[in-house]
Amino acid sequence: MATLLYVFPHPDDECFGPAPGMARQRRENHEVHLLTLTRGEATSQRERYGYSKAEMAETRYQEMQDVAATLDLNSLTVLEYPDGQLAELNPLVLEDEIADHLHAREPDIVVTYPVHGISGHPDHLVTHALVKRVACAFRQDGTAVPRRLAFYTLPPAPDDADRASHLRHSPPSLIDCALPFDATDLETGREALHCYETYRPVIEEHRPLDAIGDHISFELFGEAHEPRLSSLTEALPDAETGLDLPARP
């Protein structure tokens, strides 16, 4: 069995796509951990409730507890860095937080956003850079984890797909893993998504799980697979080799 650590900046990032895959991984008895860097307090949805940022942060934190229970996560850690302001913080502090979790969980696989962040949100872009740098530093220092760094992404939309125009995808040539899931996994993912009661209007409008199709797409850093892998735990690089880091110029 493998250990996976998902690292995202906001509550609900794990449910706007990856959740059915996480449900499958737990069904297959892999360890699945989630680290979220903020409590998502800056969302405009709080205005509908008249919540302060502190009240929204606490509400979303409680929603995440329900998500963790629904997905049967092995652990959930929610940090309290300011939502929407990760780019303004000292990246070394954030890297240390992520490194601490890699040391604690010793994940075989780390998952985060791709370089385009899907939505382009600055916090998504910062998180990608932080996680990639920490993972590469671990491997360069000879640490045996992670063995794989994966970026959750969207494939190109079919011509008739009703996908929001601001969402970005990865080109097919960069997608190395297409993770299928069954109807039970999808239902579990939907249940987890709907734990975010404060986001119900957004969920109903955008139907995020409809955008992923019948599988979840991932880029695999430093790897190229043809045909694509059908699981993040398939053909894992060995612990001695790990991430195939590009040579320095």
Describe it.
This protein has 7 helices and 7 strands; from the N terminus they run E-H-E-H-H-E-H-E-H-E-E-H-H-E. The protein starts with a strand and ends in a 29-residue tail after the last strand. The protein has a single domain (3-220), classed as LmbE-like (Rossmann fold, 3-Layer(aba) Sandwich), CATH 3.40.50.10320. The chain is globular. The protein has a 7-stranded mixed beta sheet, with helices on both faces. The model has no long low-confidence stretch (mean pLDDT 94). Helix 1 (19-27) links the parallel strand 1 and strand 2. It is of the alpha/beta class and 249 residues long. Helix 1 (19-27) packs across helix 6 (183-193), helix 3 packs antiparallel against helix 6 (183-193) and helix 4 (91-105) packs across helix 5 (122-140). It is 34% helix and 16% strand. The chain has helices at 19-27, 46-49, 53-71, 91-105, 122-140, 183-193, 200-206, and strands at 3-8, 31-38, 75-81, 109-112, 148-153, 177-180, 215-220.
Describe the structure concisely.
The chain is of the alpha/beta class. The chain is built from seven helices and seven strands.
Shape: globular
Q: How many β-strands, per DSSP?
A: 7
Q: What is the name of the CATH architecture?
A: 3-Layer(aba) Sandwich
The name of the CATH superfamily reads LmbE-like
Helix run count: 7
Q: Which structural category fits the helices and strands? A: alpha/beta
N-to-C CA distance = 37 Å
Compute the gyration radius: what is it?
17 Å
Largest sheet: number of strands, sense, barrel closure:
7 strands, mixed
Provide the number of structural domains.
Answer: 1
State the helical fraction.
25-40%
**CATH topological fold name:** Rossmann fold
- Sketch the topology as an H/E string, one letter per element: EHEHHEHEHEEHHE
Q: Percent of residues in beta strands?
A: 15-25%
Strand order of the largest sheet: 3-2-1-4-5-7-6
Give the low-pLDDT segments: none
Arithmetic mean of pLDDT: 94
Highest CATH level, the class: Alpha Beta
